[in-house]
UniProtKB/TrEMBL annotation:
Broad class of enzyme this protein falls into: hydrolase
Reactions listed under catalytic activity: 8-oxo-dGTP + H2O = 8-oxo-dGMP + diphosphate + H(+); 8-oxo-GTP + H2O = 8-oxo-GMP + diphosphate + H(+)
InterPro entries: Aldolase_TIM, MutT-like, Nudix_hydrolase, NUDIX_hydrolase-like_dom_sf, NUDIX_hydrolase_dom, ThiamineP_synth_sf, ThiamineP_synth_TenI
PANTHER family from the UniProt entry: 8-OXO-DGTP DIPHOSPHATASE, NUDIX HYDROLASE FAMILY PROTEIN
The protein's name in its UniProt record: 8-oxo-dGTP diphosphatase
Annotated Gene3D superfamilies: Aldolase class I (3.20.20.70), Nucleoside Triphosphate Pyrophosphohydrolase (3.90.79.10)
Top-level taxon: Bacteria
Required cofactor names: Mg(2+)
Family the entry assigns: Belongs to the Nudix hydrolase family.
EC number from the UniProt entry: 3.6.1.55
Listed SUPFAM superfamilies: Nudix, Thiamin phosphate synthase
Classification of source organism: Bacteria, Pseudomonadati, Pseudomonadota, Gammaproteobacteria, Thiotrichales
């Protein structure tokens, strides 16, 4: 049972190709001169999508459709707790205008980090950076086969991957990491290295680090710079709290289902996954027995999407 009484707010991310529609909060409002994603309070008897359709018509004079879930963010301000139900769509009727006198503008998604937003929007910005499929590299025999499999995965639409190559000699890992980073960037994908944070000093071109749950307790605060992604693997509520303490950009929560690598270990299931996600302010990937067909379920339970080895790594 939550100790907090939340005000539920529907937030809409309106997209036009690679651009996002934002509104500037006015002088008389809290967080004045901060940009925001349009939306508003969910009225009694409304669903989040009904609230979004109403708010966008009132605020921006546009009819919208086909809203898809992105993330749910609980946030505690000094005097109020809100729960942001964030959806995204690219289906709308006309050019948005500031119906209430507010400035409305389109921004490139990768320029959003340069703008001032209310603090509660941090998780939305992170979710917009990340794909709904997070591939973890699996088995391979030699560098050539590794690159062949990685290239095939990237060509199939993978945009975010984790290089996990345990047991390699350091020179073999270096050779593969350099090639993986180069290939991922060539194909417009991001790659995180699984291991200790000092890997970023060795491979500064990597997009970030994926920290195993047994490594996160070494830190009292975020151990890498903000311009790199910090992913954290978690299994328990304690892990989740520590991941948030060190300012993880996103979290992996596992195992959701029983996995071939740990047969006999029951997964937490979707109901527990959804319960844990409710208290997390950053994107969460479901891990453990996941396949592409589980993405819709993960999103419906508040997740960013799914992470997988066998589900995405070519056999």
């Amino acid at each position: 049972m939550s100790l907090h009484s939340y005000i539920d707010i529907a937030i809409g991310v309106l997209k036009k190709e690679t651009k996002i529609c934002l509104a500037l909060r006015q002088k008389h409002q809290s967080h004045a001169n901060h940009w925001e994603f349009p939306g508003g309070k969910i009225e009694k008897g409304e669903t989040p999508i009904q609230a979004l359709k109403r708010e966008f018509l009132e605020e921006l004079a546009v009819e919208t459709d086909n809203w898809q879930p992105l993330i749910v963010i609980p946030w505690h301000y000094e005097k109020v707790s809100v729960r942001l139900h964030v959806y995204t769509t690219d289906e709308y009727s006309s050019e948005p205008v500031g119906n209430e006198g507010q400035q409305v503008k389109w921004f490139e998604v990768f320029d959003l980090h340069q703008l001032a937003f209310p603090a509660a929007n941090t998780g939305i910005l992170k979710a917009l950076q990340l794909a709904d499929k997070y591939m973890i590299t699996g088995s391979f025999n030699g560098k050539d086969e590794f690159l062949q499999k990685l290239s095939s995965a990237l060509d199939s639409g993978i945009e975010l991957c984790q290089l996990r190559a345990k047991g390699l000699a350091s020179n073999e890992f270096s050779d593969i990491a350099e090639a993986a980073i180069s290939l991922c960037h060539q194909k417009k994908a991001k790659v995180l290295l699984n291991g200790k944070i000092d890997l970023l000093a060795e491979f500064p071109e990597a997009d970030g680090i994926q920290l195993a749950s047994n490594l996160i307790y070494e830190f009292e605060k975020r151990p890498i710079t903000k311009n790199k992604l910090l992913g954290v693997s978690t299994h328990t509520n304690e892990d989740i709290q520590q991941a948030l303490k060190i300012d993880a950009d996103f979290i992996l929560l596992s195992p959701v289902k029983e996995t071939s690598s740990h047969p006999g270990t029951a997964g937490i299931g979707w109901e527990t996954f959804a319960q844990r996600v409710q208290s997390i302010t950053v994107p969460v990937y479901a891990l453990g027995g996941m396949k592409a067909g589980d993405i819709e379920m993960a999103k419906s339970q508040g997740g960013q999407g799914v992470a997988a080895i066998s589900g995405f790594w070519p056999g």
